[in-house]
């Protein structure tokens, strides 16, 4: 295992976790839900706050890419998924406080990700197959179609779709390397395509639901899918005898995320602080639109 790759992945996790809360504040300042991708992009490029979030995500992505190149995909994604506890802690800045039941779910997700890290083996090689580029772009088209159909659904579903987008982006990174040819360029262009659709879907989820409820399924999706693809198709290894632990880690992280994403009533795991917010104190910003669902 590469310690440089692990440190890079954890650094990216810190940026992603803080960026998620900043993104939640940004999308909730707008009363109208950004259901159109082009309109969302036009509004975002004119908004300094959203551009700041994008800058944080880009810096995190560079660190994430280093982790993907140096670690098995499931470990790189597990390290990046540690952004979830960061998001859960920082969610207090947007008036969301986790109750003990929800913290227990965070612990289950984190424990599952730790098992993934411990059971990791060696990373597979950079993918150079000519069939890889059409496969990743087919995934982009499928994700875009699912986004159009599911953009009006709840935060848990939108978070899941966003997780698939970020999973596709991570898988595509494994096909970028040297020497640079048309296949590498085509795969490289799929990375921002996946990320753009995922960013939009995640923004929709944050607009209509709690940060943790939208983030948990996204984290699991972007961890679970690359883990399976990496081991089954891209040559990523698992430590001898640790296959059951890796499987348990995937199941635990999925179960914890499902618990957090499930809709709850008023005795839910999240408390909201109702003090008014300001531009300099975004944590207390009021939330426009319909009342959100509660997570445990």
From TrEMBL:
PANTHER family from the UniProt entry: CONSERVED INTEGRAL MEMBRANE ALANINE VALINE AND LEUCINE RICH PROTEIN-RELATED (PTHR40761)
Q: Where do the TM regions start and end?
A: 48-71, 78-95, 101-118, 130-149, 182-202, 214-235, 241-262
**Region annotated Disordered, chain positions:** 270-296
List compositional bias (Pro residues) regions by residue number: 285-296
| InterPro entries registered for this protein in UniProt | EmrE-like
Keyword Transmembrane helix assigned to the entry: answer is yes
Name of the protein: DMT family transporter
Keywords for this protein: Membrane, Transmembrane, Transmembrane helix
Domain of life of the source: Bacteria
Q: Please name the source species.
A: Nocardioides oceani
- The answer to keyword tRNA-binding applying to this record is no
